[in-house]
Design brief:
single chain, 83 residues, mainly alpha, 2 strands
């Protein structure tokens, strides 16, 4: 959901889509628009939690969703990067 006048996206807790998928779709849009370019590190779980006001499990599921979609890969101890 885009909040008019602010230009940023937020998670709608009343949506039929689960929060992790909403966050994943927001990040997907950033990847597709080039805002998160190839080989760029995704925000950390803590950064996602702060930005979207979500829990750690939701942040992890959002990143896993992007991984399942083939958009990112996770390198242990380094982070998750855009493909």
């Amino acid at each position: 959901m885009l909040l008019a006048g602010y230009g940023w996206l937020v998670v709608n807790p009343r949506s039929i889509k689960p929060p992790y998928q909403q966050v994943g779709e927001i990040l997907m849009a950033r990847i597709q628009s080039g805002q998160l370019p190839k080989d760029e590190r995704l925000p950390s779980e803590a950064e996602l939690m702060a930005e979207f006001e979500i829990g750690r499990t939701t942040a992890r599921r959002a990143v896993a969703w992007l991984r399942d979609e083939g958009l990112v890969r996770t390198i242990p101890t380094r982070g998750t990067y855009v493909l």
